[in-house]
């Protein structure tokens, strides 16, 4: 049976679409607009996700971050209907996941733990998945290459390490060459080389114009590349904006210095209205004065500054602070 062309291919045949995605330069934002409207998900009587709304895309690298138990995984499961929403909905270019005729070709998903029959080889697992969507075997070989699994493709998935299982899950998400990807903690189980590889892959996929939504640790390392960031805390949206904006809006500017006489500098700066914290390593962390103010006061008092640098909050600092209600 011929495979229909999803609306997102925007007037191209699947092969043309693939060629354009692979070429990278000509196409921007082929991914769908992802709209989440008032999603609520409950386990028993407890709401894991409460009335969450946001809009992403089209295309780009997006992150959902938050402390453990914030509702990130539940959010992704609700978005694709794997958990039943108590209310609300998620639309991919206006359609819910269950209404997609060929979901593998439209929204690739990775939700932990990646499922694979332990007695099947990685290659067979992907081939069986591919056949449900009329995807040719050569695409299976391509994604095995892309995910670094070509050498272990003929081993049973049951003997795969956690990192290999994670790569197999990613290969499954990529199989249909979808313009949207929802990846729950894709770095889980990967070693540092694997994480570096994954970061490069995600950047490439987003640069090709796909909508890539990731949750978990990796988003912290990727903060600079992320277009839009949704921060969840206890199932609610605490922030939803471009990553750089979320960080700058929720960070009090601070300066960190290492003086030769910390006690004297601390006293001096407090006298000028700054809030000063003396760290165990002898550095002072200062808010209320700029780096130049601190340098000027130190010079006039004959105090040597061995270091003087603005402090940049990490994404993790920001969402933990937001979740604590600061
Ligand atoms: N199957 C389940 N049954 C009951 N409660 C659940 C279930 N799955 C998740 N929860 C609860 O729902 C809340 C949100 O969990 P979820 O796994 O979505 O958070 P998360 O942000 O993905 O956390 P983590 O970063 O630890 O993976 C938590 O309080 C969790 O205990």
UniProtKB/TrEMBL annotation:
Xref: InterPro entries: AAA+_ATPase, ABC_transporter-like_ATP-bd, P-loop_NTPase
Pfam family, one: ABC_tran
Alphabetized UniProt keyword annotations: ATP-binding, Nucleotide-binding, Transport
SMART domains documented for this protein: AAA (SM00382)
PROSITE patterns documented for this protein: ABC_TRANSPORTER_2
Domain ABC transporter: from-to ranges: 34-259
Residue span of region Disordered: 1-23
Keyword Coiled coil: no
Gene Ontology molecular function, alphabetical: ATP binding
Family: Belongs to the ABC transporter superfamily.
PANTHER family assigned: ABC TRANSPORTER, ATP-BINDING PROTEIN (PTHR43335)
Protein's name in the database: ABC transporter ATP-binding protein
Taxonomic source organism: Actinoplanes ianthinogenes
Native organism taxonomy: Bacteria, Bacillati, Actinomycetota, Actinomycetes, Micromonosporales
